[in-house]
Amino acid sequence: MLKVTVWNENRHEQKNPVVRDIYPQGIHGTIADFLKTEGFDTRTATLDEPEHGLTDDVLNNTDVLVWWGHLAHSEVKDEIVQKVKERVLDGMGLIVLHSGHFSKIFKTLMGTSCDLKWREAGEKERIWVVSPSHPITEGLPEYIEIENEEMYGEHFDIPQPDELIFMSWFEGGEVFRSGCTYKRGNGKVFYFRPGHETYPTYHHKQVQRVIINAVKWAKPVKRERPVYGNAKPLEEIKGGK
Amino acid sequence: MLKVTVWNENRHEQKNPVVRDIYPQGIHGTIADFLKTEGFDTRTATLDEPEHGLTDDVLNNTDVLVWWGHLAHSEVKDEIVQKVKERVLDGMGLIVLHSGHFSKIFKTLMGTSCDLKWREAGEKERIWVVSPSHPITEGLPEYIEIENEEMYGEHFDIPQPDELIFMSWFEGGEVFRSGCTYKRGNGKVFYFRPGHETYPTYHHKQVQRVIINAVKWAKPVKRERPVYGNAKPLEEIKGGK
Amino acid sequence: MLKVTVWNENRHEQKNPVVRDIYPQGIHGTIADFLKTEGFDTRTATLDEPEHGLTDDVLNNTDVLVWWGHLAHSEVKDEIVQKVKERVLDGMGLIVLHSGHFSKIFKTLMGTSCDLKWREAGEKERIWVVSPSHPITEGLPEYIEIENEEMYGEHFDIPQPDELIFMSWFEGGEVFRSGCTYKRGNGKVFYFRPGHETYPTYHHKQVQRVIINAVKWAKPVKRERPVYGNAKPLEEIKGGK
Amino acid sequence: MLKVTVWNENRHEQKNPVVRDIYPQGIHGTIADFLKTEGFDTRTATLDEPEHGLTDDVLNNTDVLVWWGHLAHSEVKDEIVQKVKERVLDGMGLIVLHSGHFSKIFKTLMGTSCDLKWREAGEKERIWVVSPSHPITEGLPEYIEIENEEMYGEHFDIPQPDELIFMSWFEGGEVFRSGCTYKRGNGKVFYFRPGHETYPTYHHKQVQRVIINAVKWAKPVKRERPVYGNAKPLEEIKGGK
């Protein structure tokens, strides 16, 4: 059974009754619920727990980590970010949601600023599938329509995705690369755009479907990890000097 | 005229007479020489200069930066690495050579460990062109043969290259992705494998040709930089909330 | 001096006075004009000329071929398509415009149906730059706005582009991958979306800038072509059988 | 249960006792055996059956098609190739083995010549994993060693793979991109190099593991297929003309 940990900074939910009304158990609670229903062995972790809830034991027992953060990216400790990064390079899948584009973990895995345009106007977003053979699109229609969302617009300062799965249309005139896969070391990373805290985006069945599919796609590969460093020759070297 | 800065840690040349004999003016001196001959406005910078020779003035007047480092990656100051990174994201080209795979600047732009297998046995390397339409291959034969080189072997822990240009065959039985392009922000990055300090690799005409071609390819694009942050709508938003 | 041939089926211009008014010398005439002004050695060729104007002599003296077709894709002779394909694989650049997505030459180079959604409603198109380091974006603002265009919408059935340069937003709610690069053999291919015949799109300065940049980018690499077939070993084989 | 069809031209087995000794039930029989053992619903089809064994009924009931051909590529009927292509674009996975690089189906899906260097000297091949997070590498060591194989060398005239999984080292001095994935329409394609008919390559457990993994990876996505053609607007168009 796949082991999933849903991490959330869990701050908007404490401060803003609008958010708390939409997500009474926190964004992490809602996400964990539909992942459990899908049959994954799911737990949650939040910023204010010791070690942000991401102890060695938790990380070593996580196949796929889901990440939501926004207000408090800078409060996430560098040593925890470093541990998460090492786990990704070791094979753990990572699903970065919405404002997680600016999290330390995403930026350090991308190597770019991860900056973008944004606007909170509750406008319509239409998320189009552009890679119809990809397992992350299983069960989805041609597009996902979200009635009210924050806008994220290009240029999105990310490396060219290994695979571009979704592209968003926004009512206000922008477009965005909304579903992007990357490989890093032995691990797989998926960025998925929607999910502003003041809208019920994670209650949307098709958004849930994407996250469920992404968890399956991101699971670690079972094999010995590559060996690095000094290596004896596998064949005789004749003319070496 | 393209402005090129060749950066070298310049330590092997001080310590090891073998290296000094091959590169009497330092690895940077040899590389700068053939770049000047090609008509680029070329200067050099080294680790032990103030700010490692990479002052704001130098960086702001550099179109393409060539980087060679090995022994002293850890001595490169984080604030200089950060400035170089910002210049790359702003458009400066970056050519990372050989052991530069473990430099701070390459690792932070890649987001991975950049680790690999290696062996100093002076074995034969044959660098095959696999992307024959790429301008970095201009003027090259089907492969470049280097009689004696250090081996670098897979797995090379880098993100999937945007373009894979060269693949190496090694006498001892390994292969390696030897020429890799990446885009980062407004800048372009090229990693090129050969160049162990105890062999005369940078005197090899075809190796020089690759670096010259890469400098031309990596030059900045002339246009306004993207604007990030809060954005007014370009179209009327009807149903927003 | 780069040698460019602009190919056009040149049928709408004969049948439809609206098109003839916008392009009195044909779409090919307008495109050739701004390419000449840029300094390219430019000629035109059209469907109704012998061999569609693409004789061996013309093709062998073309560095980059620009292609516009729509009504009469099926009238383009298979043997001419085959010759163009061989020239692309040999190094000639190919710029495919708008409805050329359904041309025989584009489909045979892509291997897919190249199908898409479309609508002629004269709606607004906004073409966003998503690869700001790419030379095809030189001199461009963040987006190109076209007041009236035909809509092309996803899913666009193409292989994943080697590089995605532009993404379009359409007033009617769709998005599209509008600028896509591919490498095929020794040649480079660029698909660029806008250019419906009843709108003055190729008089738009920024659209012209994209095509000029693309011609420069697509020029052939100067080197010996790869050798295929039976190959003698470069190293001694010990245990072969 | 995944439905797999293994297609083989099955000619070498009829003509050459060496091949018949290695593969008494044909190459297809050996491949089908280990796929059945893995639990796939597996059948075989060969060139000399009516419609090459690839009737509409067979194709419509195939999730993943495995293809081995060599001597008789030209005997495969164009209309069958066209049907296979349409099934791939509709979602069927396709695994192309070894000399299948020159099959009509692979060439039409790639859009290039698919040419390469080759040599039959029974030399050693070492197939290195370069994408350790990819499910096709599950259960594999760092490299697969094959004592005697035909050599295939670069330049391999294919489009840049979406994902490069394996790279081969050959005793005679060449390298090759040995494991390449592509997406085409709703389907996934994997090319895997080894498998010359006079060596027992498909009895090699790790080679079998790659093919098993590839079948799993290539299975169709369950969703409605994209709709193409004329499309009504999803949003009101104001200024259209």
pLDDT averaged over residues of chain A = 97
How far the N terminus sits from the C terminus of chain A, by CA atoms, comes to: 53 Å
Using only C-alpha atoms, the radius of gyration of chain A works out to: 19 Å
CATH architecture of the domain at 3-114 and 179-218 in chain A: 3-Layer(aba) Sandwich
The CATH homologous superfamily of the domain at 3-114 and 179-218 in chain A corresponds to Class I glutamine amidotransferase (GATase) domain
Widest sheet of chain A: strand order? 2-1-3-4-9-8-7-5-6
Biggest sheet architecture of chain A: 9 strands, mixed
Oligomer: homotetramer
CATH topology of the domain at 3-114 and 179-218 in chain A, by name, is Rossmann fold
Helix count of chain A? 7
Instruction: Find the structural class of chain A using helix and strand composition.
Output: alpha/beta
Number of strands of chain A: 10
* Relative helix content of chain A: 10-25%
Low-confidence stretches of chain A: none
CATH class term of the domain at 3-114 and 179-218 in chain A: Alpha Beta
Report the β-strand fraction of chain A as a percent range.
Answer: 25-35%
Largest binding interface between chains = A-B, 49 and 49 residues
InterPro entries (chains A, B, C, D): Class_I_gatase-like, ThuA-like, Trehalose_catabolism_ThuA_prok
Pfam families (chains A, B, C, D): ThuA
Protein name (chains A, B, C, D): Trehalose utilization protein ThuA
Domain ThuA-like (chains A, B, C, D): 3-218
